Amino acid sequence: MSMSVNDCATIRDGFPRPFPDTPSNVLQQFQMKGKVVVITGAADGLGYAVAESMAEAGANVALWYNSNDVAIEKAKALADQHSIKTSAYKVDVSDSTQVSETVTRVVQDFGKIDVFVANAGMAISKPILEQTLDEYRKQMSVNVDGIVYCAKYAGEVFAKQGHGNLIITSSMSGHVVNVPVDQPVYNATKAYVTHFGKSLAREWREFARVNIVSPGFFDTKMGAGPDCLQEAYRMSSLGRQGHVKEIKGLYLYLASDASTYMTGSDVIIDGGYVLP
Ligand SMILES: NC(=O)c1ccc[n+]([C@@H]2O[C@H](COP(=O)([O-])OP(=O)(O)OC[C@H]3O[C@@H](n4cnc5c(N)ncnc54)[C@H](OP(=O)(O)O)[C@@H]3O)[C@@H](O)[C@H]2O)c1
Asked: Which keywords does this Swiss-Prot/TrEMBL entry list (predicted)?
């Protein structure tokens, strides 16, 4: 039953909550010095751009990789270049035990986790009638199970700390059925994690923020392949894919105190692909 104006005017205990004790200078809000950021899928592509962005803003960074051990060298280089602490961890995010154990190791090594960027993902882009069930299960295990495991174990740390910040890399494919390659399973995995993230924003409202980034085509290994490249250029209002450097500011914004009033948001960054 909806409430009357009088019912709604009732003063409720604990409201309004206080404003956060953060700097008013916007550049100071973007400072990440002393913060600890975990990034999955951090060896290359969007994940490494995010790692660079956090390091450039002064954060200590834990780079998680699966098969691409260039992450180890990149972690060392970031530490030397920015005088921060970094470490690389080999983790298959579709393995809950590995995720749980590595979250524990990061807390042992760094003392806390301020921000967790659940970014790892993969696609086997095929119509469902051509897709094997193993291919379906593989995408579910990385894109859905992997995000759920990372959120669950990072969330336990956030709850214990009393603060935290989860950022999920979803996709514009969770919003639209992008063309011309049919990939219903990948699209659905991204729709899942977008809604999962919004739901966590409410569940964790007392101690952590949760936001979602939904990229369009970016020029990485997972970006537009030969079958959809020309259509990616035509569909994007800006007529091109994104460069990874163009996503760094958005993740930094969401990770930092510049976005303290933002939770449960899903930010599309796609050069205008989903507009038509
Ligand atoms: N590029 C785009 O156009 C685009 C658009 C929308 C959304 N996205 C999303 O952006 C995210 C990053 O993709 P990207 O474009 O940067 O492509 P990418 O360079 O291929 O990155 C994908 C990352 O996921 C990691 N990964 C895959 N399976 C994993 C597993 N089982 N356990 C742990 N890590 C695993 C890979 O790690 P290793 O290399 O170490 O194996 C890799 O670093 C993905 O979630 C993707 O769905 C990308």
From this structure: NADP, Oxidoreductase
